[in-house]
Write a structure and sequence with these properties.
alpha+beta, OB fold (Dihydrolipoamide Acetyltransferase, E2P)
Length: 363
């Protein structure tokens, strides 16, 4: 066991129920989380990410497999005996206590010296910028302020690992965006391992050192935000993270990790390959909307079609192009003072793929 691994899961499985009523919530989860890492479990509702978090916390027992925390087996260890704290979606603050009392509660239960507790509470409130509101009660705070108090309370005992179960989901968009930055800063300042659960792709991409994308109880891919977005390993990851276009192709040539793909028009596009492509096999290209360029020379382009819809979004314009075979392709063009898309509805346009931007997905 490497010392820099905070958490390691080996073939972890969780099954609820038995017999014909058995439901597998987690299937063969095997990965590690580094010490001082901001690690995110990302996926749609019901994919198993919260169950996995609860297993790490000790609120759910594993059906099979092993869990290690800094090299020690913890599968049978009670939650209160694990150096782990959890911030839940519902902050569960004590309404009759002040902010300071909420933060100090856990420390006093650990029978720590009252003077040391006061110092620790002061440092935690300063860390989350709540010192000026120390004497207020939760009912007098905004949602974002309550979130900060819950975070301070969880950080106060100095856990080795902090688990966060969609703690920002109840906040409005602007506050959620601000808290993303603050959470990452707090994690870097405290050097505590954060394991964050969310279904929000932007949250995951913004804060995480690494992301585990989950679907149907299985980890589909683990990597940095750039790796997950630019080099998805399968169609689910490509489709779930951001937006993408899928284009059916036939594989015509393979050169290492680069593949020549033939479109229905007979044109060839070069792509990086995920999986094990075979010459003559059918597969799909994933091309992000921002990696497509519209041209006014459709006859010289690998894809061509008619502008079916224009959507102005301030920073960029989304154009939906209906191809000759009736499929629709999404193109995103950034709006700048120097360049604003000028295509009109009904225009015939060509589409070219930026070099190195296409990703071949082989199931």
């Amino acid at each position: 066991m490497l010392k820099d691994r905070a958490i390691e899961l080996r073939q972890v499985e969780k099954v609820f129920g038995a017999g014909t009523h058995a439901v597998t919530a987690i299937s063969d989860a095997s990965f590690s989380i580094d010490d001082e890492e901001f690690f995110t479990l990302l996926g749609p509702s019901g994919c198993g990410k919260t169950t996995l978090l609860r297993i790490i916390a000790g609120f759910e027992a594993v059906t099979r497999g092993q869990i290690f925390l800094f090299g020690d087996k913890i599968a049978g260890l009670a939650p209160n005996h694990r150096p782990v704290n959890t911030v839940f979606q519902q902050y569960a603050l004590f309404p009759h206590m002040t902010v300071s009392q909420n933060v100090e509660f856990g420390l006093l239960r650990l029978k720590q010296d009252p003077r040391a507790v006061r110092d620790r509470v002061g440092r935690m409130l300063e860390l989350v910028r709540m010192s000026d509101l120390a004497d207020r009660k939760p009912g007098q705070l905004s949602g974002g302020q309550q979130q900060r108090v819950a975070l301070a309370r969880a950080l106060a005992p100095a856990p080795k690992v902090l688990l966060l179960d969609e703690p920002l989901s109840a906040l409005d968009l602007k506050l959620r965006q601000a808290m993303r930055v603050e959470l990452k800063q707090i994690q870097e300042e405290t050097h505590i391992t954060f394991v964050f659960v969310t279904h929000d792709q932007e949250e995951a991409l913004t804060m995480s050192d690494r992301i585990a994308v989950m679907s149907n109880g299985k980890v589909q891919q683990i990597g940095s935000a750039r790796e997950i977005y630019e080099a998805p390993e399968n169609e689910f990851v490509a489709d779930f993270i951001g937006e993408t276009n899928f284009i059916d192709v036939t594989i015509r040539a393979i050169d290492g990790s680069t593949v020549d793909c033939e479109l229905s028009s007979g044109q060839i596009i070069r792509a990086a390959a995920a999986g094990a492509p075979k010459i003559g096999g059918h597969a799909r290209l994933s091309v992000r909307p921002e990696h497509l360029t519209m041209t006014n020379t459709p006859d010289q382009s690998p894809l061509r079609g008619i502008v079916a819809r224009l959507i102005y979004l301030g920073t960029d314009t989304q154009t939906i192009v209906r191809l000759e075979d009736a499929r629709e392709i999404l193109v995103r063009s950034q709006n700048t003072q120097m360049k604003i898309p000028t295509n009109q509805l009904g225009d015939t346009v060509g589409l070219t793929v930026n070099p190195g931007a296409a990703r071949l997905l082989v199931e």
